[in-house]
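Supplementary Note 2. Why include the ligand at all?

Several targets in our set were suspected to adopt different conformations when bound, so apo predictions alone were not considered sufficient. For every target with a known small-molecule partner we therefore ran a joint prediction. The input for zinc ion is given below.
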Amino acid sequence: MPLSLPILKTPPLLVEAELDLPASTLRLRFAGNLDENADLRKVQAYCDGQKETVGSLYLDLGQVTYLNSPGVRAWIQFLGRVQSFFQGCAFERLSESFLHSASAYAEMLGFASNSLGSCEVPFFCSACARRLTHWIDAGELGTLKALKLPAVPCPQCGSAMRLDDFEKEFFKFLARKEK
Ligand SMILES: [Zn+2]
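The joint prediction is reproduced in token form.
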């Protein structure tokens, strides 16, 4: 059983660390808001303390629901430090809100070699005005130039749902490796 402990318990941001020493992995789960109250120095200090024993860092941002510019700045600073402790990281889950920011600020995903996992993508049905999000693996999305969006039928009426955003805007984060 990996060791799990909450590092930051100051709502609206919660950070939980899951340390698996036999596997030599550290997983950080973020939930809530990345805003001016997000003090990530404590999390950074925790990571600093693990860099000798941990080989791989996994980041789960699937439950980040809100970000603003101070939060984005804090995140970029934090990631810049911790990704160097572990020679990069793997993003396991990226919420819709986080992806919006990552498309605006490429630094939010750090090194181009950091892998991207499951992405929360918003869809909309114009027939019944229904909105929902789907988790899609970044590897299946293709590239910004050759986007491969899966067909998502509306659970209510069966019509094909469309992306609830501009493709070129929302999926800009996919272009970070296309330079
Ligand atoms: Zn529908």
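The first strand starts at residue 3 and ends at 8. Residues 125, 127-128, 130, 154, 156-157, 159 surround zinc ion (CB under 6 Å). Comparable summaries for the other entries are listed in the accompanying table.
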